[in-house]
Amino acid sequence: FLHDDPRDQDFSRRALELAERQGAMMSRAYALNSLGMARWRAGDCDGAVQDLLECVQYFRAHRDLIGISFGIQALSWCAASQAPDARAARLLGASQAVWRASRGRGRPDQPPPYASYAARSAARVRSAIGAARFDRAFAEGVSCTVEQAVDLALGEDGGRGDQTAAASRQHADRSR
User: Fold this and answer.
1) pLDDT digits (tens, 9 = 90+) for 92-130
2) Using CA atoms, how far apart are residues 123 and 126, in angstroms rounded to an integer?
3) pTM
4) Nearest-CA neighbor of 173 among 150, 160, 155?
């Protein structure tokens, strides 16, 4: 993924299969995150969101802040791609809040691809809703607790009606 290798989805799927065969659930969650990011970059936002929602749910259950951080950040990129609205801006900010809570260990915005994806996502949302509205919503996200950020990412924050929240609710319904 970091090197724009066109085989990133194949490698992620193979990692997922291996983790499932071995019962390595934490590795499975990270493989889902990798697959979600690869699918997002390839333009398959719906598939990416499903993978990322599942990984965030697993990471939440195990209180893996680094995993939660990766998942929410990638979900914020999906939200910016699918529905560049105030919720997407809040989610972009919330991803920063979770990284801060994890004390920045493994912070992904250091490698250039992550920083550029975050910057492009923010620019897309800012352009769609205006700078003032973006800044307000982003600040709301930055002020989230980890729990609030996860609720926002999973669409458990009361919902704002955008596509990512709808996909989150559909995923939750299928998991029941």
Assistant:
1) 999 999 988 887 655 655 667 888 899 999 999 999 999
2) 5
3) 0.85
4) 155
